[in-house]
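Hi U.,

Before I forget, here's the chain from the pilot set. I'm dumping it here mostly so it's searchable later in email.
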Amino acid sequence: MPGFDESLPVLRTSQKALEVMPKKGRVASKADPAEMPWGTSEYVGVRLRHARMTLRLRLRDVAVKAGCSESMLSKIENGRAAPSLNTLYRIAEALGLTVGQLFARGVDLNGLVSRKGQRPVVKFDPLRRGPGSTLERLIPYDRSRLLQGCIHHIAPGGGSDGFIKHEGEEVAYILSGRIKFTVAEADYALNAGDSICYRSEQPHGFRNIGQSTASMIIVNTPPSF
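Structure:
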């Protein structure tokens, strides 16, 4: 996979930035990370467009590689559509990036603590798939790190929207709710307190099969997602 292009604009996220002016008919909430609006789609779109132009690729070139339509890719680049986690992964892969690199920001490598309510929070596909899912980054992206970790908050019926595979190994720990994990075509129903560990090269995905929002921590190494 090509290295991270240092010329890509750095995404700087803050609680204030996430509480952007809601679009007409939508109300922003501060109460729960799972209820936050898709506040960073414009920033992600800028990074995707910049990476595509740096590689001298057309919308069609990336869309074909990522398995999505040109119109959808254009909307994502312009911040007018929020992709699912699986779609964003495929677009990033088509550009030689990881999802983590899309949300990279200036990192103090000596900083040890990330506070509740101050971590970058990204919401995936809230419009086409109901309430959607949110991803809360535990470990800011940096090329020197060996770990990548996130908290996933998944609405009932939500999930990864298909299967993902990438280099490495990962472990998921269920914080709350009930989640079905599929790894290499085998299904596992997990409850709060359960965990699952697997090689990331195996196709894997997940879905909330409960009646309320489910949360889990996923940590993988190397930071290949």
